[in-house]
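Appendix B, Record 12. Input sequence as logged:
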Amino acid sequence: MKKVLLVILFICLTCFVHAQSIIAGQHNVDDYYYKFTPDSIVISIPAHGTTYSDHYYSLDINHDGIMDFQFALLAPSGALGQNTDHCLITGLNNNDVAFARYDTCFNNGGVYGSCSSSIGMAYAFHYNDTINSNANWQSLGYLSYYFMMMGTPTDSSACYCNRSYSSDTAYLGVRIKVDSSFEYGWIKIVGTSFSIGSATTLTMGEYACQNWSLGEEEIIKNASRFSLFPNPASNTLTIETPSPSTIKISTIQDQLIKTIATNGSKINVDHVGYSSYVVNVSAWPDGVYLVEVRTEKGIAVKKFIKE
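Logged structural output:
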């Protein structure tokens, strides 16, 4: 009996550990996954003038309507005597980024005196690496940076930091705080390009978030519950809503397929009744789809499988 209990406990612990991690570059049906096709330049700063401000890109990695991370990109200034650029990611709403190390830049004096800075670098995971609680988690991390501040043409001392981190084809590890636990994810950065004479860009390939919170019974913002059946579906899908609402059906990659207004109007759908709708899915490709119901009380999302 004790051996049986130990085996059950081991299995449960194994499942728990597995649930608290994600593999870089991989995902399963319960994860939220998005792929840019083709790879997308999410920030582009055109070449102009000599000074630039940061440009930003915010990412909702688990598709719950709340921004989780923000990328900042600064193009080279081109100003006389200085040249600064960087790319970094910041966790929003108490979310974190896997941290690699602090990179230190310093000089021994000169016109500006002793110059030093400590730059926190984000960790670059390789494909198939495990992302879990063992990582060093921080609120932000630099993907790349370059900093130079010179005194006069005769000043031989300078604070000069080369870009010491290559973000090309790197997987950034991230985690989302959900109540008292975390959901883990990854973001594939295809490349960064810094140029005074042309555009400075950040290119992203894909991303995924483990244990996507919008599960079969998850309700967001206290929205009214709705039902859909059969699930999986092969020919038709019935959606029942308890109150007037707007229904949107999309692919797991967030491509909108159908919209249904339940106040009497309808778009490409057979109307069965005030709160019941039958959608013909027979011609749809097999896979996972999302059904979003928006009411005055909030938003609810469920997944169904077409097979």
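Helices lie at 2-19.
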